[in-house]
Amino acid sequence: MNQPSNTGDSLLSSSDFGQLRAFIAVAEALNFSRAAHKLGVSSSALSQLVRSLEERVGVRLLHRTTRNVSLTEGGQQLFQRVKPAVEEIGAALGQTSHLREQPIGPVRIHCFRTAADLYVRPVLKSFHEAWPDVVLDITVDDEVVDLVAGRFDAAIRIGEVIEKDMVAMRLGPDLRQIAVAAPEYLARRGTPQHPRDLVSHACIGWRWPGHERPYKWEFQEAGQWFEVAVQGPIIANSKEFCLQAAIDGLGIAFPTEQVSAPHVEAGRLVRLLEAWSAPFPGFFLCFPARRQMAPALRVFIDTVLGERPGSRPNV
């Protein structure tokens, strides 16, 4: 027995919604010019849309004369049935589109360890309270990763390792790395007078994640940077670990001035070779340039930046 064909499925093409909107506009206005103005299209384009719909359903929907437009019986039936459905579809699309403006969903952040403590951890509680539908997916390490390849939305890192095609916003002042050691170590091994004296001292080496060789300590003399390849009993990929080893008297470490300051003030460490320690660009929040920024990323950036004047770029 032959089943009746279901022509409804054949009408659900990508062009039907536009054709139905065109038909409904003409059916409501009973005038092509007014309907075209409402939809922001030309009268000829609107006429073609309605004609295409009539060809698709195989039924004349409108009576057209030089003066009047009226609905046929088939047009009246179609109008009564599809108008509520098209309005509902339009409302649903509008509601879904509105979600683009709501801060919601994950934000993937790559953050240097020190920067995470300085700029991210202090705002986590207030951020979650303000934006409970945003999930911060934070990777904390000192590796310099490719943000795009790693599918990160943003990163916080020092200025000298930010790619040129990134949008970058300064979070803090320039940094200085200063050699430090415990008084106990200096009493035992003596105090270096020049950075090159470090080669005869026990230095706590730090290695960039992903690198085989330890980082060479950088100093400046007469406006020129130079490196010292230090050696010692410990090499670690954690600056916090290196600093603690220095506090324990195992050797000389090379942390940032900001991190070592509390220990210097408390007498646990002594600054060394300050005359050769020059500033370099500090921490920046950076992200790939994009035409549209997800609202969730925007509120994260605004939260981290706080109200620091002059820190916001035109993005």
Q: Characterize the main sheet.
A: 5 strands, mixed
Any low-confidence stretches, pLDDT <50, length ≥5? Answer: 1-14, 307-315
**CATH topology (level 3) name of the largest domain:** D-Maltodextrin-Binding Protein, domain 2
Measured as a percent range, the helix fraction is 25-40%
How would you write the strand order of the largest sheet? Answer: 4-3-5-13-6
Terminus-to-terminus distance: 65 Å
What value does the average pLDDT take? 86
SSE topology string:
HHHHEEHEHHEEEEHEEEEHHEEH
What is the subunit arrangement here? single chain
Number of helical regions: 11
Radius of gyration, CA atoms, in whole angstroms: 33 Å
- Helix-and-strand structural type: alpha/beta
Shape: rod-shaped
> How many β-strand runs?
13
Q: Write the CATH architecture name of the largest domain.
A: 3-Layer(aba) Sandwich
Mind telling me the CATH class of the largest domain? Alpha Beta
Compute the number of structural domains: 3
CATH superfamily of the largest domain: Periplasmic binding protein-like II
Share of β-strand residues: 15-25%
Would you kindly provide a written description of the structure presented here, covering whatever features stand out?
This protein is of the alpha/beta class. The protein folds into 3 domains: 12-99, Winged helix-like DNA-binding domain superfamily/Winged helix DNA-binding domain (Arc Repressor Mutant, subunit A, Orthogonal Bundle); 105-174 and 281-305, Periplasmic binding protein-like II (D-Maltodextrin-Binding Protein, domain 2), CATH 3.40.190; 179-276, Periplasmic binding protein-like II (D-Maltodextrin-Binding Protein, domain 2, 3-Layer(aba) Sandwich). 37% of the residues lie in helices and 18% in strands. It contains 11 helices and 13 strands. Strands 4-3-5-13-6 form a 5-stranded mixed beta sheet. The protein has a two-stranded antiparallel sheet with strand order 1-2. A hairpin with a 4-residue loop joins strand 1 (62-64) and strand 2 (69-71). Helix 2 crosses helix 3, helix 2 (16-29) crosses helix 4 (43-57) and helix 3 packs across helix 4. It starts with 6 loop residues before the first helix and ends in a 10-residue tail after the last helix. Residues 1-14 and 307-315 have low confidence and may be disordered.
